[in-house]
Specification:
Number of strands: 10
Shape: globular
Order of helices and strands: EHHHEHHHEEEHEHEEHHEE
Strand content: 15-25%
Helix content: 25-40%
Structural class: alpha/beta
Largest sheet: 8 strands, mixed
Oligomer: single chain
């Protein structure tokens, strides 16, 4: 099973001494796209005012320009450790044991606007680029959508899509019986369901951590739902039909 996560705009500083090596990242079919985005980001960072406008940064976020300017020479750390924010704080990757981290290396993928798809343990520097960032002469959707969709189509087994809809639009997962998009909802006393925003990230982080700690063998969406119930999560096929043909699961937070 592959767990497909969104990135976070916030990142930890620091890392090992090794600099970014695009050829060392997972999904080598995306290397050309990575070369395009990293060149565009580092070039634009030479013009701080332009980069701040492109990334919609405020004065207190000027350090993000420095991160992007130094992208190719900055120290790196595993992607799962690099990202912070609500989802990744709930996942709390630095506290996972060795077996859980090894499982993450082969089962967790993070979708980055800069790098495309990343393996959880791929070494990356701190950077700033969002799905809606505007780079000169580059449209991220046009650059990434087809290559990422193709890369995901080649993945076998269950794919659990925990990304935001904005990142799904940058590279959709395949429409097949063993792929499902997760929507986090709350249920009130009358049984009415409501999609969550902020708390959906925490629920996804806790669910991902539980999978990494338990490391269940999952070969179908049905088996995933059964395991989730045993693990204390309310996960079920959505009662609302999606006209796009994408299967949806509802995770109750």
């Amino acid at each position: 099973m592959r767990l497909l996560l969104p990135p976070s705009e916030t990142k930890r500083d620091g890392g090992a001494d090794a600099a970014l090596d695009l050829n060392a990242l997972s999904f080598p079919s995306l290397t050309t796209g990575r070369e395009v985005t990293t060149a565009a980001v580092t070039d634009l960072a030479q013009q701080p005012a332009e980069m701040m406008r492109a990334l919609k940064l405020g004065p207190r976020q000027a350090h993000e320009v420095d991160r992007n300017r130094d992208l190719l020479g900055s120290p790196t750390m595993p992607a799962l450790d690099r990202y912070t924010g609500v989802l990744f704080d709930a996942l709390d990757a630095p506290t996972l044991d060795a077996e859980a981290r090894a499982h993450a290396a082969t089962h967790v993928v993070v979708h980055s606007a800069l790098f495309g798809l990343l393996g959880a343990m791929d070494p990356i520097p701190a950077y700033r680029l969002s799905h809606d960032s505007r780079l000169p002469s580059i449209r991220l959707k046009a650059l990434w959508r087809d290559p990422i969709a193709t890369a995901l189509e080649s993945e076998s087994g269950v794919i659990l899509d925990l990304r935001s809809e904005a990142y799904v639009d940058l590279g959709p997962a395949p429409r097949r019986a063993d792929t499902a998009f997760v929507r986090v909802v709350s249920v009130d006393g009358s049984g009415r369901r409501r999609a969550l925003n902020h708390f959906n990230k925490r629920a996804k982080g806790l669910f991902t951590r539980a999978v990494l700690m338990a490391r269940p063998r999952i070969d179908s969406i049905g088996e995933l739902i059964d395991w989730a119930h045993e693990a204390g999560f309310s996960l079920a096929l959505s009662p609302v039909r999606d006209d796009s043909g994408v299967r949806e699961l509802e995770l109750v937070a």
